[in-house]
Amino acid sequence: MFDFWNKLCLVEVRLLDSSFIEAMKTGSSTDDWRRRGTKLFNEGQFEMATMCFEKANDAYREKWARAGGLVATADSVMPKNLELGQASLQKAAEIYESIGMHEKAASCYIKLHDYKRAGMMYMQNCSTSRLEDAGDCFAMTECWSEAAEAYFKAKCYTKCLCMCSKRKLFSLGLQFLEQLWEEASVDESNIGLLYSPAAYGLIVDSLDAHLRPSNKKLTHGHLGRMAIFLLHVVPWGAMLTSRLMQYLDSESEWANFFQSLDIFVHHSRYDFFGHIESQHPSGLDGRYSLLLNLKLALESTFKFTLNANWRAEPDYISPMCCVDLIECLGYFASSCFVLHGCMFSTESIFLKMVMRKNCSLYFQSCLMSTPDRELEKMSISVERFIFESARSLLTKKHMIQEWVQKTSSTSHIPVLLRLVVALYLVPLNLKVGDCYEATRFLEMHKVFEDLPLEFSQKILGALQIRSWKLGKFRRLFADALEVIGERMLVAGSPRAQATCRGLNAIVISSWDCMVNHVARTVNSLFRDESIENNFLGKIQRKGLLPHERNRGGNKIRDAEFWEKFEAFQANKQGQKDARAIVVFLRSVLSWLIQRGPPTKIDVDLLLEVRQVCNDFDKQSDDSAEKRACVTAKDLYSTWKDGGKKLKKIISVLRSEKASMEEDRRNAAAADVAVQSHTDGCSGSEPGTGAAEEDAPEARGLSTPEDVEAHKQKSKKKSKKCRRHALP
C-alpha cells in the first residue's frame, strides 16, 4: 500500500528529528482545556478534570473538581480507613466553603456528623428552602432553641411549637405565638394554626414549668407573660381559663383578671359590617369588670415590687412586661371617652394595642356602646392609679435598674422613658394630675438625667412658660415625642378633633374606626404619610367600605343615589316597611361616607342611624319573609322619634340636592363666561390661570373628581390663551 501511494508521488518522507516533532504539535486554547475538564468531571474523573481546569487557569472549577475528588475518595475509603475519609471530607468542606458552595459544604459536615456547623451553614448561607434542613440539623445536635428558630423562619410552625413544648422552651414559644397573632391580624392565612393542638399544648405545658416552689402557684413572671399573651386572642376560652385557675388562688387578683378577660371576650360578636360589638347593653359587657380587675392585679404586683419582695422570687415579672400592662390599662381607660371625646396616645402604643385583638375588641366595644357613667368613673380611678404608680416607680431609679438587671438583659432607660410617657398621657387624657407639677417632680428626682437629652430639654421647657395651659403643654409634649422617633396619636370624635388643630400628631376619627374597622383604618393610615385631619379623611380617599368593594368595586354615583332617593320618596307604601327604610338608610350612610356628611346633619344622628341598622340586622333568627313584613311602627318602637329623624334626614338630603343642582348651574354659567373670555383672548395677561385657580371652590363643584377635571380644563384654557397673547 505504501509503495502504491509512493508511486503516485503522494508521500513525503522526512527524517524523525526534534524540529519535526515541534512542527507536528497543535496548541490547545483555554476553552479547549475547560471543555475537556468539564467532560472528565461529569465522567467522575476528578483528578484529570482538576489538571485540565488548572491548564485552563480556571481556579473556581479547579477547586470544585478537587473537592469532588476528595468526596469520592472519602466515600470509597471511609469503611476501611475512617480517619483518612474524615480528613478528606473536612478538606472538601473547606474548599466548598471557600468557593461559596455552601450546600455541598453542609452535606460534607453532615457526613462528618458536625450537625451544628451544617445547620449554621444552611441557616446563614443558603436559601430559605433549606431552613427546615437547618432546623433538623440543630435538632440532631440538641440545639433546641436554634432548631425552633429555624423551623419558625421556615414557616414549619407546627414543628416549631412542638419543639418548644417538648423541650420546655416556653418563653420562646409564647414569643413565636405572639408574633403569629400579630401577623395574623394582617394576613389571616395562618390563623388556623393558632387554633391548633400544638399551640394549645404549648400554652398548657408552659403552666407546669413556671410554679413557685413555696406554694406551687404560677410565678409572677409567667403571670405577666400569660397576661400579655391572652390580650392578643385565645380561642380556647373556658378550657384554658379553667386550667389557669388550677395554678392560681381562686380569690387572687390575677385569677379575677383572667376570668373577667374570658367573660369579656366570649360575650362579644361581629356585626354585619365585620366589626366587633357587644351583645349586651352598656355596663353588662364585661368592660367594667375587666378594667377593675386588671387595675387590682397590677396594684398587687406593684405593692410586691415596692416592698422589695421581688428580689427573692426565682422568676419575677420583668419591668418591660409591667410597663406593657400599664400601657394596656391606660389604653382601656382612655378608650371609654373616644366616641364623644378624645384619647391621647402614642403611635407605638396604639399600633401595639390594635395588633392585640382583645385590646382592639375593647376599643371597638367602646365605639359601639352608649356612655356609661360607672365605667367613666372607673376609668378616672384607673388613670389616677397609673399616675400615682408611675410617680412611685420613678422615684426609685436604682431599684428599677436592679430590677431590669435581674429579669432581662436590656437597659433601664427604655423603662424610665415609657413610664414618663405613661405618666404624661394621664393628664392629657382626663386632666387627672398636673403636667407642670409632674415635670417639677421628675426634675426634683433627677429622672431627666437618664432620658434622651433633646427629649428632656423639650419637656423642661414647659417650666419656662408663664401661662400654664394644657393646650400649650400638649403641643410641647408632641414635639418632645418626635425627637425620640415617636409620634403623638389622637383618636376621637370629629367635634373633639377640632381642638387638635396645629398639633404635631396623627389624628384618627372614631367614625373611621367604626365604619372601616380599627385595624384596617390604622393600616391604611400608616401606609399613607399624608395624614388628613378631617372628618372621614381616610374613607373619603378610599371612597368605599370593604363590603361595598366586594360587591362590584364601583362606588355609589350621585345620579344613582338620587334615583334611589326619589324612588323612596315616591314609594309611600315602602315608607311603611321597616326593611325598605333600613335599606334606604344604609344607602344614605354609604353615600355620605364617600362624600362627607352635610353640616346640617349631626354626627350623633348618623351614629344612631348606623346602630338602628345594626339592631335590625340582629333579627337574623327570623325568616326573611317575616323580617320583610316588619312595619315602620315596629321599627320606630325601638328607634325613639325615628319618624321625625327620618323626615329630618330626607329634608336635609332634599336641601343638599337642590344646593348641588344650583352649584352645577353656576359652574356651567361660569364655564360659558370663561370660554367666551378665552375665545376672545383679550390679551390682558398670559397669567389668567391664576384667577381660575379659585374657581372650583367658588363654583361649588360637588366631588373631588369634578374639581380635578375642572382644574385640568382650566390649565388647558390658560395655555391656549397664552399662545394667542404672546407675540
UniProtKB/TrEMBL annotation:
<dbReference type="InterPro" id="IPR039904">
    <property type="entry name" value="TRANK1"/>
</dbReference>
<dbReference type="InterPro" id="IPR011990">
    <property type="entry name" value="TPR-like_helical_dom_sf"/>
</dbReference>
<feature type="region of interest" description="Disordered">
    <location>
        <begin position="660"/>
        <end position="727"/>
    </location>
</feature>
<protein>
    <submittedName>
        <fullName>Uncharacterized protein</fullName>
    </submittedName>
</protein>
<feature type="compositionally biased region" description="Basic residues">
    <location>
        <begin position="712"/>
        <end position="727"/>
    </location>
</feature>
